[in-house]
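Incident log, structure service

09:12 report received: a user says their structure output differs between two submissions of the same chain.
09:20 pulled the input from the user's history:
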Amino acid sequence: MRHRLFVGLLALVMLSACGGSAAPVFNQTSQGLETDGGTAAAAESAAGGTAGVAAPVSELQQQTNLSGEQNAGAPNAQAPVQRLVIRTANLQLLVEKVDDAEVQVRRLADTRGGYVLSSQASGEESERRATVELKVPAQRFDEVIAELSKIAIKVEGLDVKGQDVTDEYVDLESRLRNLRAVEARLQQFLNEAKRIEDLLQINQQLGEIQGQIEEAQGRITYLKQSAALSTITVSLYSDAVVSLVPEESWSPVTTARAAAKNLIVFGQGLADLGIVLAVWAPFWLPFLIATLWIRRRLRRPGPTASVAQP
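09:34 re-ran on a clean worker, output below:
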């Protein structure tokens, strides 16, 4: 019994490790969903044939389109796999009034089935700037961008990007099916185990498999939601308005006041200079005195030699 459990656990671990190595190519036939490499057959063989684990139909086979909507595929026709793309856009809009444009952007997101993810604003009046990040349904992505362009006086910049995550999505679904097959077999082993050591070992393996299942499910959910809701970042700003009216007319009184103020500032500067010189006098005064004394000694004429009379 113990040898059988060990062999079964080893087979299941190898199956789960190889589950997400390659993306399967789906082929829908009248007998069900088949994958190349015999992944579904391996899962059924691992279950021992007593409780077969039916692989769920891939959501991509239900034609998950770029907008996140699902359409039922024809049961007897092989439909092409739709790509799963995460789309983002950055718009730079020159508007007349930033605050009014921000209100219109928020209203547009609400009426198109989206919402505002974040919003930032800075500056005042003519220097006002705002950045609004929107989440909108992917099927209305182009429509919302066109409506946002109508708000602006001029579209200064538009950057649209797309990230194709179809391959990762298919790999995750294949890995998830294999992990669930391993989980079902481990549950069966757990029910049949008699020894405490076997129960602990199987329970440990089961916990690891369930953790991997939750991780794969979380990533699949994230990819689906990211593809269903596109992100649009809108930057709003307006041109600075230059005033043509002088601030003040010329006045003699104003000029006199400015001159008096400058005179006071000049006098304060001289007073500050005198205070600084007085404080530093013990350092610079001896050097000044010594310099003057040396210059005076150098300028003094030397004694003249007397001329001898014949």
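09:41 both user submissions now match this output. Likely a transient worker issue. Closing.
09:42 reviewer note: The radius of gyration is 42 Å. Confidence is low (pLDDT under 50) at residues 17-79, 241-246, 305-310.
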